[in-house]
Design brief:
Elements: H1 4-8, H2 15-35, E1 39-43, H3 48-57, E2 64-69, H4 72-84, E3 92-97, H5 103-112, E4 115-120, H6 133-157, E5 160-166, H7 177-192, E6 198-202, E7 206-207, H8 214-223, E8 228-231, E9 235-236, E10 238-239, H9 241-254, E11 259-263, H10 267-270, E12 272-273, H11 274-283, E13 288-292, H12 295-302, E14 308-314, E15 333-335, E16 342-346, H13 352-366, H14 374-384
Parallel strand pairs: 1-2, 1-4, 2-3, 4-5, 5-6, 6-11, 7-10, 8-14, 13-14
Antiparallel strand pairs: 9-12, 11-16, 15-16
Helix pairs in contact: 2-9, 3-9, 6-7, 6-13, 7-13, 13-14
């Protein structure tokens, strides 16, 4: 059945969701055979997709789940949820508040391994994290340098048979530092895994109500009696966290080494205007969306009685915003998978020596061993992604309600 949460918001009925559901049913026995009795490492386990993947893994009866996340509060919430559901009976589960690629995290992987499968969801995921040199360097460290280090450690020590990393649609023809960092991540992980685990990845659409997302902000703002907000003329395709987790598990099972699973559909065919998502959210709660252009109009409407609820429409004028998702970039080609909902992407060719040199230079930047500016970081990225251009904007998402 389709995810009931998204159905209630008018976001869940789509041909892709139905195809994914059919793929999951068709391959579930194979996935169960793969996971039953397996030792699985999950990094970024407390995030939206990581936690959803853990919940999908538990009924498949792995022998051990080693869960790692730097967010200790998120891990505590996940542990309480699993225990409260009485889930995971017979599965040894360890919750570790660690940086997945710091020395303690790498040492844990070695001490607790080897693993049949490593699922890596650790990431800095917000475009806004490229807003200044310091947050940019942190994003580059997590998304590129540490991903390369982690994959190399697994490969060199023989710690995993398979490695899966979650990417993003923003990695296709990236228009932001975040997208560029994830495209570099794909290449760096595939290169570092050569001779080691079978490494694959997935890009997919927006996960509705994921942590820090626009739709999650609707829940928070509505509960607080605040206006909702949405960018104008911007369309997105939404999936549920459960669907995202199933994409990841299907991808790691089906994708050959060095391939990226992507949805097999035209994003425009199922995309919705973000303004419409706000209207659907309010309608599901018995309110009517009233679109306004200023914060003052929103405040006046909030002060009035009635069923109208303000939604502030903002211009699409911040860095890195795209009108709609794109899953395949220039130079990338499609390879079929034995799935209805997903296909594989072959990455564009890349000079591996240049990639290795770029990762090394970025590592020197984030360690403070070499001075850097935003322009320096961009120049290193362009050395391996020549088409990338960061287009700064005066407006910032941090300045929006």
């Amino acid at each position: 059945m389709l995810d009931p949460t998204l159905e209630a918001e008018g976001l869940g009925r789509s041909a892709f969701s139905e195809a994914l559901e059919a793929d999951w049913a068709a391959r579930l026995a194979e996935i169960r055979d793969q996971i039953a009795g397996a030792r699985v490492l999950v990094t970024g386990a407390a995030g939206t997709i990581g936690a959803a993947a853990v919940r999908q893994l538990l009924p498949l009866a792995p022998s051990r789940l080693e869960l790692v996340d730097v967010d200790e509060n998120g891990l505590a919430r996940l542990a309480r949820d699993i225990r409260s559901r009485d889930a995971g009976g017979g599965v040894a589960i360890s919750f570790n508040a660690l940086d997945f690629a710091g020395w303690p995290g790498l040492a844990l992987a070695e001490a607790a391994g080897p693993f049949d499968l490593a699922l890596d969801f650790a990431a800095v995921k917000h475009v806004r994290s490229g807003k200044n040199l310091y947050t940019l360097l942190h994003m580059i460290e997590v998304n590129v340098v540490r991903q390369h280090r982690f994959a190399a450690h697994l490969a060199q020590r023989g710690l995993a048979r398979r490695l899966f990393v979650v990417s993003t649609d923003k990695a296709a023809d990236p228009a932001s530092f975040m997208g560029a960092s994830k495209l570099m991540m794909e290449a760096a992980v595939f290169a570092a895994s050569d001779g080691g685990p079978r490494a694959s990845a997935a890009r997919f659409a927006n996960v509705a109500y994921s942590s820090g997302s626009l739709l999650e902000s609707y829940l928070q703002r509505f509960a607080a009696g605040q206006a909702l907000a949405a960018p104008k003329d911007t369309r997105r395709y939404f999936i549920s966290a459960r669907e995202g987790a199933r994409i990841c598990l299907l991808a790691q099972l089906s994708c050959p080494a060095g391939r990226i699973a992507v949805p097999k559909f035209d994003p425009a065919s199922g995309a919705v205007e973000l303004a419409d998502t706000a209207a659907a959210f309010l309608l599901a709660r018995g309110r009517r969306a009233a679109f306004v252009a200023t914060a003052g109009e929103a405040a006046r409407l909030l002060a009035q009685a009635g069923d109208a609820y303000p939604v502030l429409l903002t211009p699409r004028d911040t860095a890195g915003e795209k009108e709609i998702e794109v899953f395949r970039g220039a130079g990338e080609t499609v390879a079929p998978l034995d799935l209805t909902a997903l296909e594989a992407v072959r990455p564009a060719s890349m000079d591996l020596a240049a990639l290795d040199a770029a990762v090394g230079e970025l590592a020197a930047f984030v360690a403070g061993a070499k001075p850097a500016s935003v322009a320096d970081v961009e120049a290193v990225i362009r050395g391996v992604l020549p088409a990338f251009r960061h287009a700064p904007a005066e407006a910032s998402l941090d300045d929006r309600i």
